[in-house]
Every structure is written in C-alpha cells, then in structure tokens.
Design goal:
alpha/beta; Rossmann fold; 2 domains; 10-stranded mixed β-sheet; 8 helices; 10 strands; about 25% strand; UspA; Nucleotide-binding universal stress protein, UspA family; Universal_stress_UspA
Length: about 280
C-alpha cells in the first residue's frame, strides 16, 4: 500500500494536484493524507494558556476539510483508495517532515499555482522548500496540468551519479504504474566527452532499463547552449507528459531550476515534475 501526502490550502491548484494523484494511482492501493497546515496564530489555542480565542473565523479549517471531503465523495468511487484528513498548526516544513516520518509517506504531491510560463515561473516557496529540504519523493503538479496518465516521461541526467536502488525503484514504479515510455536525455553544450564513471553509470542504467523495459526506453544526447532551454524544448517537441529528476544531482538540478544562486526555484512548464530522493 502506498502512503501519499497531499498538503492542501483548499485552492484550485491543490485540488488539481489531488485529482492528478488519484488518477495516476487509480489502480494502486493507497492512503491519501490530506494535510492542511496553518499558522499558530490561527489556532484555537493561545500560547500555553489553553484559552479559546473569541474572534470568529469566516470558515474554519474543519469546515474546509468537510467541504473538501464532500468534493471527494462526488468523484467516482475507488475501493483501493482511502482518505484521511490531517490538521496542523505551525512551521510548514517542520510539520510536513514530521508527517512524512510518522505516516511513512512514500510520495508528497504538491500543487503549484499559475501557468508556470516564462512570466510566471516561480514554484511556490512551500513546494520549493519541500523539494529541497525533505528527503521524500515529490510530485509537483501545476494548476493547469491536464488530468491524465503520462505516456512519455523524460529523465534528464548527466550520468555523474551512481543510480542507487531507491532511484531505480522510483523509476520502475512510475513506469509500471503509467506504462509510459522513458526518454533518458543528456544535454550538453558541446560534444559529450564522458569520464570513466559517466560511461559506467550510463551502461548500468541502460542494462537495468533493457532488462525491465526493453521496448519502452531510449537514450538521447542533445546539444544546446542552455541546458534548461534545451530540456524545455525537448519536452515541447517530444510531447513529454512528465519530467523526473534526481534531487541529489545538484549540478544538473541547478542548471535546470536556478538562473543564479539567489534565484528562487523556477520551472517553466505545466508538465508535472517528479523529484526523486535517495
């Protein structure tokens, strides 16, 4: 059984992420934890005094969760899926990390607001912090992502990392669930000149994929002046429907998601992003 955490602020983006997740895992036995985290000042407890705040709230978290579960009840039923509401107050990252540990979460699904186009490309700070600060696989889903099972998944890599069991298992899981084809893509600014370790890592990944997904994977070496632009162009031209990357591959990750060291995490497409952690 998979344990999937979906932080929600009751927005359209978090609902779209939820719908995407239940469609993706429609044939898998899952527990979905719907987690709402609010600031401490909005809780009913003031400090350690246990005094109930008298100022009325327009709609309480409990009422919002009830409305959310009413929405869920209107979706086609699936006996494989179970839904649990969680309500917390405090620091977002600390509480997500605590929930991941306590509930043995396999995947966090985050909604991102907006088109994520060139003029609106910043992933919300919560999503960016979850991706970079919590050691759990994260699926970031844009508000405008179409609800469908991906048929083509791209995996950008520079072959500098050894592919551990956890990474290979994550790739295997998403390919088995989606039945998608995997495009392994290597972007370079000039003709690739691989080190011995890169050659070994590529061969190891190729052997693994040949054994399990013989007809459903390919390796592609693409030249381009800018790695991020090359990946986005590849996504558009090859009708890629999900992008997956290894969080530990910091060099490539920074080239794709950061223009400079102080820039916020950026992502310029509505294609879902699966970030894999070891």
């Amino acid at each position: 059984m998979k344990h999937i955490l979906i932080p929600t602020n009751f927005s359209s983006s978090s609902w779209n992420a939820f719908e995407y997740a239940i469609n993706l895992f429609k044939n898998e036995q899952c527990i979905f934890y719907m987690l709402h985290i609010d600031e401490l000042r909005n809780s009913d407890i003031q400090g350690n005094s246990l005094m109930v705040m008298t100022s009325p709230k327009k709609i309480s978290t409990k009422e919002n969760l009830q409305l959310l579960f009413k929405q869920i009840s209107n979706l086609p039923s699936n006996a494989l899926h179970q839904f649990i509401a969680l309500e917390e107050y405090g620091n977002f990252i600390d509480l997500v990390r605590k929930t991941v540990e306590e509930k043995k979460i396999d995947l966090i699904v985050m909604g991102t607001k907006g088109t994520l186009g060139i003029k609106s490309s910043i992933i919300s700070s919560n999503t960016g912090n979850v991706i970079t600060k919590i050691a759990c696989n994260v699926l970031a889903v844009s508000e405008n992502t179409i609800i469908k099972t991906p048929s083509k998944i791209a995996f950008p890599t520079d072959f500098n990392l050894f592919y551990t069991y956890s990474i290979l298992n994550s790739i295997t899981e998403i390919l088995e669930i989606s039945k998608a084809k995997l495009d392994v893509i290597h972007m370079t600014q000039s003709k690739p000149n691989f080190s011995n370790s890169q050659v070994i890592n590529q061969a190891y990944l190729d052997d693994y994929l040949k054994e399990l997904f013989t007809e459903r994977h390919s390796f592609n070496h693409i030249l381009g002046k800018n790695v991020r632009d090359s990946i986005l162009k590849y996504i558009a031209e090859n009708k890629i429907e999900m992008l997956t990357m290894v969080a530990k591959n910091l060099n490539l990750f920074q080239q794709v998601f950061f223009n400079n060291p102080v820039e916020k995490l950026s992502y310029h497409t509505s294609v879902p992003l699966l970030v894999m952690h070891e």
